[in-house]
C-alpha cells in the first residue's frame, strides 16, 4: 500500500492504503473549523468509495482561542 501525509497550516491530512485488501484510511486534522461533509463527500467521490465508515472527534475544546 501507500502512505502519505500533507502538512497544512498547523494541521495535517494523512492517507494509509492497503491495496491488496482494497481498503484505506483517510485522516484530516484541523485546528480550525471546516465542513466535514464537504471533505467526506470529496474523498468518497474522488476515490470511488463503495462503503464508508466515519468517526469525527472534536478535540481541543479547551484550547485558548
Q: SSE layout and pairings?
A:
Layout: E1 3-8, E2 11-18, E3 23-29, H1 36-46
Antiparallel strand pairs: 1-2, 2-3
What characteristics describe this protein?
65 residues; three-stranded antiparallel sheet; 3 strands
Describe, in short, the structure shown.
It contains one helix and three strands. It is an alpha+beta fold and 65 residues long.
Description:
The protein has 65 residues and is α+β, with helices and mostly antiparallel strands. 17% of the residues lie in helices and 32% in strands. The protein has one helix spanning 36-46; strands at 3-8, 11-18, 23-29. Strands 1-2-3 form a three-stranded antiparallel beta sheet, with no helix packed on it. The protein is globular and about 45 Å long. The model has no long low-confidence stretch (mean pLDDT 92).
Order of helices and strands: EEEH
Can you count the beta strands? 3
Number of helices: 1
Q: Strand order, biggest sheet?
A: 1-2-3
Rg (CA only): 13 Å
Largest sheet: 3 strands, antiparallel
How much β-strand is present in the residues? 25-35%
N-C termini distance? 38 Å
Can you give the mean pLDDT? 92
Shape category: globular
Query: Which class best fits the helix and strand makeup?
Result: alpha+beta
**Low-pLDDT windows of residues:** none
Helix content: 10-25%
Amino acid at each position: 500500500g501507500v502512505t502519505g501525509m500533507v502538512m497544512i497550516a498547523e494541521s495535517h491530512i494523512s492517507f494509509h492504503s492497503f491495496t491488496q485488501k482494497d481498503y484505506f484510511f483517510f485522516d484530516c486534522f484541523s485546528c480550525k473549523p471546516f465542513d466535514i461533509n464537504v471533505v467526506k463527500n470529496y474523498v468518497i467521490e474522488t476515490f470511488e468509495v463503495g462503503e464508508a465508515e466515519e468517526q469525527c472527534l472534536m478535540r481541543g475544546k479547551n484550547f485558548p482561542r
